[in-house]
Automatic annotation (TrEMBL):
Protein name per Swiss-Prot or TrEMBL: Polyprenol-phosphate-mannose--protein mannosyltransferase
Keyword Glycosyltransferase on entry: yes
Protein purpose: Protein O-mannosyltransferase that catalyzes the transfer of a single mannose residue from a polyprenol phospho-mannosyl lipidic donor to the hydroxyl group of selected serine and threonine residues in acceptor proteins.
GO molecular function per UniProt: dolichyl-phosphate-mannose-protein mannosyltransferase activity
Membrane-spanning intervals of the chain: 38-57, 118-140, 147-165, 171-188, 276-297, 387-404, 411-426, 446-462, 474-497
Pfam hit, one: PMT_4TMC
Organism: Dactylosporangium matsuzakiense
Family statement: Belongs to the glycosyltransferase 39 family.
Localisation: Cell membrane; Endomembrane system
Gene Ontology, cellular component aspect: endomembrane system; plasma membrane
Record EC number: 2.4.1.-
Length: 518
């Protein structure tokens, strides 16, 4: 018997996985910063634009090489032509003691704009402006405040040290740039990993259940941070200090996230699960990237020490692994040069002087009568904006106190970044090694962040205060006055940052510490 076909059954919808309630304090600790809206990106673009325009004005002045541009601008041209540094006088490879990446970056500008003062300086301007933008974004991720993020970028834009080194073809701005890039990715990694923990908790993860293994996904930002650290070392060896401190920070991030998620044994879990593996991997990745920065030397046949082992042992050809042996020997000799460098220099200084501006560096000096006064002077002086730099030390002290009082990992991260660019150099003082003020440039972005952190504490959190709160008003006045004074100080010293021809009396009036600055 025929029967009417029954209609197919509609499958029941899959049950919606309920979102687990997470305590507000845990959510606050793990939740990422809100995405920056239009106002944030306008502020970021404005601040970066100000920094870029300031650095581009009259960039080609002076026309000739100044200070160590005499080395790096010429070596960059050698790399473009031969792949290695070269002595034109006797047509032999040149012995240099810094890795090649920074000079390749200088050479990029020379390739695009020619071998001239604009060409060998334009890449320094570019990375200087990008570093300002990255610090603005990183500050927003850390502080979750457009105001504080803008302050961080503005203070960097108005810092004389950052300004001067963004306009000359020296290596230090490129070292600082790659450290800032690594820090930027480190901050993004911290936020991403904590957000993934929050999502797992909302999906029902029970942290202390035996056998519970969270799936956090591959940390691409962490990988990019490690690559950037290797590139920093490819500019100058002192980048290794940041490899170490950022590798430790990765372990600390893993432990902190697990603690916020509710793990009882968060120290052990943070180290054994991901932390230690990435600590080792960061060094390994940085080494591989660093070695690849020497690609021009590897591909050349005439680089310094390129065939050292074969020539020293009477071999007709290199063995297959000799390029690495020869590179190791090169580094051994360069290291001996660095640690035994005791040649006196009129602008050398010691680490304890750097935050006090005890001995800035004159990059350029010329006396003339072209400014309309009986005697004129034009100077480019590597000098941090004094009011800003003299606030760094009290800011670090306040930051340390706040880090302890608030138990705030962000404060410790900023403190570590600031000290890493200065403290290791104290170890060189007993050897009387020649050192210069610009060695501490990698610390500058973190010192600025330290000031901004303290300004944020003075300003107070807006969400907890009424709009007419006296604390907020007083804090705003203090912060506003500080920024105005720093800006005025930068404007006052601008002529001796940019080599502007001014009356000699005006130049001398800016030598606040007398002979220490002359």
């Amino acid at each position: 018997m025929l029967t009417q076909a029954s209609e197919p059954e509609t499958p029941a919808p899959a049950p919606v996985q309920p979102v687990r309630a997470v305590a507000d304090i845990v959510r606050r600790r793990l939740a990422p910063a809100p995405k920056g809206g239009l106002s944030f990106w306008l502020v970021a673009a404005l601040i970066t634009g100000i920094g870029l325009l300031l650095r581009l004005v009259n960039l080609a002045h002076p026309k000739d090489v100044i200070f160590d541009e005499v080395y790096y601008a010429n070596e960059a041209q050698d790399l473009l032509q031969r792949g290695v540094e070269w002595n034109p006088e006797d047509n032999t490879p040149q012995y240099v003691v810094h890795p090649p990446l920074g000079k390749w970056m200088i050479g990029l500008g020379e390739q695009l704009f020619g071998y001239n003062s604009f060409g060998w300086r334009i890449c320094a301007v570019t990375v200087g402006a990008i570093s300002i933008l990255l610090i603005v974004i990183a500050a927003y991720k850390l502080f979750r405040s457009t105001i504080l993020a803008g302050l961080a970028g503005l203070l960097m834009s108005l810092d004389g040290m950052h300004f001067v080194l963004s306009r000359v073809a020296l290596l230090d701005i490129f070292l600082m740039f790659w450290i800032v890039v690594a820090f930027f990715f480190l901050v993004l990694d911290r936020e991403q990993r904590r957000a993934r923990w929050l999502r797992l908790l909302e999906d029902g993860l029970e942290p202390n259940r035996p056998g519970a293994r969270p799936r956090l996904g591959f940390p691409w930002y962490r990988l990019l941070s490690a690559i950037s650290l290797g590139l920093a070392c490819g500019v100058k060896w002192s980048g290794i200090y940041y490899v170490a401190i950022f590798a430790v920070a990765m372990v600390a991030f893993d432990m902190s996230a697990r603690r916020s998620a509710g793990y009882k044994h968060w120290v052990r879990e943070g180290i054994l699960s991901d932390g230690f593996a990435w600590f080792v991997a960061t060094f390994a990745i940085a080494v591989v990237v660093y070695i690849n920065c020497w690609w021009g030397w590897f591909l050349s046949d005439g680089g310094y020490f390129r065939h050292w082992y074969a020539e020293s042992n009477g071999l007709a050809h290199d063995r297959w692994f000799d390029p690495l042996v020869n590179l190791w020997h090169y580094h051994h000799e360069a290291y001996n040069f660095h640690v035994t460098l005791e040649t006196k220099h009129q602008y050398q200084s010691w680490p304890w002087q750097w935050l006090l501006l005890g001995r800035p560096v004159a990059f350029y000096w010329e006396q003339s009568g072209t400014c309309g006064a009986p005697s004129c002077a034009a100077e480019i002086l590597l000098l941090g904006t004094p009011l800003l730099w003299w606030s760094f030390l009290p800011a670090l002290i306040a930051l340390g106190w706040l880090a302890i009082a608030r138990r705030d990992g962000r404060a410790w991260l900023i403190m570590a970044g600031a000290l890493t660019g200065i403290v290791p150099w104290f170890n060189e003082m007993p050897e009387h090694r020649t050192m210069f003020y610009f060695y501490c440039l990698p610390s500058e972005p973190f010192l600025v962040l330290a000031v901004v952190y303290v300004l944020g504490a003075i300003l107070g959190p807006a969400r907890k205060l009424r709009p007419n709160s006296d604390q907020r008003l007083i804090g705003s006045i203090i912060v506003g006055a500080y920024v105005v004074l720093v800006a005025a100080c930068f404007a006052y010293f601008y002529p001796i940052y940019a080599g502007v021809d001014i009356p000699y009396t005006s130049w001398f009036a800016r030598m606040w510490l007398g002979s220490r600055w002359v």
